[in-house]
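Researcher: I'd like a candidate sequence for this fold, 495 residues long. If you have to choose between options at a position, lean toward the conservative one.
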């Protein structure tokens, strides 16, 4: 497919199918959008959305501020009032936008029906919907990196200042949404450098626009714009990043600097979706790898754009001594589904041809592909329902449980890393349970305690946690779809 046109031509039936896919994407993202906010969303609201814009654009006290998203969320709340729905609305819109934007990328490799199947799988993807209902900058990041991919591919076909100027703007927008976009654009830079090396060192591909000055202009323009939008925060950045690095290797989160632990966690995030995934995941990985190979054979530039980002991210974070959070790889989700569909299409075709040759049957490949498509859509739909069974972190119900069960003289508290956001948003009249209060507790006054991220809380001071468990009993366990996101309610024991 020629990427000179930004959008593939759609026939009437294809347009109907496309509209249906986008309608489905919108519907499934609005189901449950108003559920309980989780800790990082609350922090975003309290520290980076409620304050004035002047404070928002100059505050880099925490990596929790995704500036572009904070601005979009502030605009949404200004228009629709403060609620979980309005806070998450930009994530929904950019999530749907990222699906729309990926169609021309998928069409570069696949026929229109299979390209539509790819974006349908994205539309009903558990993880894509999860992030689309997360008031953070990740779907915004996915949208802008997808647009940058389209512009990069266009710029690789013809010399155009306009294309690369637009690339620079999108580059800065992605960086302003989330700084992990840098890994994606480093991959672009490696590709550009490879083409230049090929031209000047080996005298190959001398006619491709990627060996000209325009890509450098686009990337440099993006860097300049990024520096400009982050200028109000620059003074605070070194101390913030230094603080993150200094704590990255500390217990109990030290294992998040280990790539093998992170890879295991990525696999576990799929396996936790049910026993079905234990059977499906290994062959799905194999099919996706085969599909990625087929994409590489057909369009090595497109494959390189996505495949390079993964090792670049791992290496950069490892060298920097930062935690390797799985969400940094969310920008790969579109390519993952593309590779899966390409792999399924290739395998069903190979099997179908062999069956047709042996048994003299016709149309077997099409029937196999249709069956595989129905299976993928059906399986994804079943997995998606798990997204609605619980909030990301059920703070609202945990607070309600304690308020319902506690007596008038009982103390209501939060213990651990979520104390500040929970008290700041859900329970302003509550207090934080401190280590000194745990050690001094003598049973004279009943205490109710909300705890989230138990592993992190217990790992920070194991001895104190053992003392806590001697004095408090677990009363309620509220599940969450966030990894380690269950919320626990404890009641003090009579001494």
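Model: Candidate sequence:
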């Amino acid at each position: 497919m020629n990427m000179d046109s930004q959008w593939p031509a759609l026939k009437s039936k294809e347009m109907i199918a496309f509209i249906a896919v986008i309608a489905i994407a919108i519907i499934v993202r609005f189901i449950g959008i108003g559920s309980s906010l989780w800790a990082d969303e609350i922090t975003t609201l309290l520290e980076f959305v409620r304050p004035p814009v002047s404070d928002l654009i100059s505050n880099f006290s925490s990596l929790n501020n995704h500036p572009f998203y904070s601005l979009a969320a502030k605009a949404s709340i200004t228009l629709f009032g403060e609620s979980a729905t309005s806070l998450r609305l930009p994530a929904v819109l950019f999530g749907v936008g990222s699906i729309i934007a990926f169609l021309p990328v998928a069409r570069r490799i696949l026929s229109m029906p299979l390209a539509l199947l790819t974006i349908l799988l994205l539309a009903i993807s558990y993880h894509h919907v999860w992030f689309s209902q997360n008031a953070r900058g990740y779907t915004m990041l996915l949208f802008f990196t997808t647009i940058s991919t389209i512009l990069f591919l266009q710029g690789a076909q013809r010399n155009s200042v306009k294309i690369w100027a637009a690339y620079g703007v999108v580059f800065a927008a992605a960086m302003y949404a989330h700084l992990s976009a840098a890994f994606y654009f480093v991959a672009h830079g490696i590709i550009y450098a490879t083409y230049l090396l090929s031209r000047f060192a080996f005298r190959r591909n001398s006619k491709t626009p990627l060996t000209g000055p325009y890509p450098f202009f686009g990337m440099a323009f993006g860097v300049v714009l990024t520096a400009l939008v982050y200028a109000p925060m620059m003074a605070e950045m070194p101390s913030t990043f230094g603080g993150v690095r200094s704590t990255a290797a500390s217990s109990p989160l030290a294992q998040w600097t280990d790539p093998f632990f992170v890879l295991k966690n990525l696999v576990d995030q799929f396996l936790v979706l049910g026993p079905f995934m234990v059977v499906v995941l290994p062959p799905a990985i194999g099919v996706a790898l085969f599909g990625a190979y087929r994409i590489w054979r057909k369009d090595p530039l497109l494959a390189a754009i996505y495949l390079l980002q993964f090792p670049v991210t791992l290496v950069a974070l490892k060298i920097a001594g930062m935690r390797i959070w799985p969400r940094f790889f969310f920008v790969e989700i579109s390519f993952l589904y593309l590779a899966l569909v390409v792999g399924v299409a290739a395998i069903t075709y190979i099997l179908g041809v062999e069956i047709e040759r042996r048994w003299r049957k016709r149309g077997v490949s099409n029937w196999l592909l249709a069956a595989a498509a129905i299976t993928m859509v059906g399986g994804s739909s079943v997995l998606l329902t798990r997204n609605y069974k619980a909030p990301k972190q059920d703070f609202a119900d945990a607070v309600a449980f304690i308020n319902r069960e506690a007596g008038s003289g009982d103390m209501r508290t939060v213990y651990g890393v979520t104390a500040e956001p929970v008290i700041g948003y859900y329970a302003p009249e509550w207090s934080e349970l401190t280590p000194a209060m745990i050690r001094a507790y003598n049973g004279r006054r009943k205490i109710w305690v909300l705890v989230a991220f138990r592993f992190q809380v217990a790992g920070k001071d194991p001895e104190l946690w053992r003392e806590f468990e001697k004095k408090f009993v677990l009363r309620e366990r509220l599940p969450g779809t966030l990894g380690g996101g269950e919320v626990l309610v404890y009641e003090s024991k009579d001494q």
